Amino acid sequence: MQRTILFLLIAVSLFPVWGCPGIVPGSRQYRPLPKWEARFYAQARQDVFPQDVRQNPERFKNTLIVWTGIIKRIERVQHNSSPFVRFIVEHHYFDWIEDFGAQRERFFVSPRGEGYFTAIWPDSEEDFPFLEQFSVGDFLIAYGYPSVIYNETVGLEPTQNLRAIKPRWYRTDVLDYGRPSILQSEI
Q: Closest Cα partner for 174 from 106, 72, 89, 115?
């Protein structure tokens, strides 16, 4: 009897923290940064992938999409007297789930994807603090319009927003998955 009461007291005392990420293991739907990212996330299509654009570029050129991947190169480029930064990104599938458990990493990204894409951003003094956060190896969440295909690399131009997630927060060797099958049938 005392054991049962003790168990109930412990269970009741833990009840308020069960839903708190970081305290008790669990997962939740990805949460975009409220101030900078949320409106793009709400509007962007997650069910369009680089191969869809390669097969039918005209169909998606006016569609805001969001792609994820690992930054492989960052280049400063000058085009028609306009400087910009080009991110060369290896696409990786992402299930849009944040995981909270004993591990430090919160994002388990698939090792698979659909080739490369690029994202560009103006290289100006006012954008310098924003651009300084990005590094090769970061997991990039990029929002934009797929408008350019060069050597099988799809360009999100214009890019509308970017978010970098540092390598300590993601892994590509835990879950191996591809396109969500439910989304494939809707394209």
A: 106
